[in-house]
Amino acid sequence: MAPAEENDSGMESQEGSQSVDADIEKEPPQDDSTAPREAPPKKQPAIEGSEDDEEPETLSERLWGLTEMFPEPVRNLTHVTVVNTKLGICKAYGFSRSAAWIIFSTSIILFAPVIFEVERANMEEMQRSQQKQMLLGPSSAISGGVPPLLPPPVQQR
């Protein structure tokens, strides 16, 4: 490249102000946007089913790309909101599980003896009814358990 530089410097001395324009034309363009080249072939969007080897964008990739249009404080606030909402939902779920366990287990412990006692009283009543039926006959069970006639109590004076 050294001989080319000598030729360029020799040109500058001969041509003067015109050599600046020639140097710009001879140098390869540094910026791709200023180079008058052919436009690259346009790729069709992934939605329409391009035949390229690239995989189509996923929904999460598209949403992540949309975050660039929002300023940094908005993105941070959104992140904090989402994280705190998720944490709140997880804690509320855990609390509701614990509360449900406490309520149901306590109710069983407190009300089970009452339920057993009521059932025992019903069983005793049923046994008395069956005993009356055996002693007095089937008509006493149907009539509603009319007590047998007892002599009147003796009054003491």
Distance between the termini: 150 Å
- Structural class based on helices, strands and sheet pairing: mainly alpha
- Number of beta strands: 0
The average pLDDT score comes to: 75
The number of distinct helices, counting runs of at least 4 residues, comes to 5
Q: Percentage of helical residues?
A: 55-70%
String of helices and strands: HHHHH
Beta strand %: under 5%
**Oligomer state of the chains in this structure:** single chain
Biggest pleated sheet: none
Shape: rod-shaped
What integer value in Å does the Rg equal? 50 Å
Low-confidence stretches: 8-17, 19-24
Protein name: Mitochondrial import receptor subunit TOM22 homolog
Main location: mitochondrion
Family: Belongs to the Tom22 family.
Membrane topology: Single-pass membrane protein
Based on the model shown, name its key terms:
5 helices
Task: Please sum up the structure shown.
This protein is mostly helical.
Structure report:
Residues 148-157 have a biased composition (Pro residues). This is Mitochondrial import receptor subunit TOM22 homolog. It is a single-pass membrane protein. With 157 residues, this protein is an all-alpha fold. It has a domain at 70-137. It contains five helices and no strands. It has helices spanning 2-15, 18-26, 59-66, 72-136, 138-142. The longest helix is centred in the middle third of the chain and has 65 residues, at 72-136. The N and C termini lie far apart (150 Å). Residues 8-17 and 19-24 have low confidence and may be disordered.
